[in-house]
Amino acid sequence: MITNYRHTGLVVKNLKRSVNFYCKLLNFKIIQNIVEEGEYFNKLINEKKLKANVIKAKLPDNVVLELLEFKNLKQKAVKKPRKYSPVGTIHMCFTVKNIHKVYKKLKTNKVKFFSPPLSSIYDPVKTCFCYDPDFNLVQFVEGKQIKKKN
Known about the structure:
- The protein is an alpha/beta fold.
- It folds into 2 domains: 8-70, 2,3-Dihydroxybiphenyl 1,2-Dioxygenase, domain 1, CATH 3.10.180; 91-142, 2-Layer Sandwich (Signal recognition particle alu RNA binding heterodimer, srp9/1), CATH 3.30.720.
- 19% of the residues lie in helices and 34% in strands.
- It has 3 helices and 8 strands, in the order βαβαβββαβββ.
- It has helices spanning 15-25, 38-44, 99-108, and strands spanning 8-11, 29-36, 52-58, 64-70, 91-96, 113-119, 126-131, 137-142.
- The longest helix is centred in the N-terminal third of the chain and has 11 residues, at 15-25.
- It starts with 7 loop residues before the first strand and ends in an 8-residue tail after the last strand.
């Protein structure tokens, strides 16, 4: 049924701040910058009269991230970091070449981490977690994933 993974969409409070995080700090490249609105868009998302600024950005391996900021909807921003454990919590994970360099760069740019780079006891990797500007969970992994035998 499914042929491939298409994209991850995130509703954000401040598009400029999120573009700074994902594009300037994590090197996503913007491939589309549009406004979505009208009957089709609102039917699709089961809303009425909403309008969103949308940025689509991708990594070199063609992973696409879609950032949506609703323009005519008052939303409360998440004001404190989420814990990892509640049901329904999701995270995005990106492979990096040098996790300590990524960690230092992001810390210098005031990105909040809830774990420093740690060596995994399950795989031969180093990994850590941080928060994006809306407190979504973002994981970085340095090293190769072990492929399981069938």
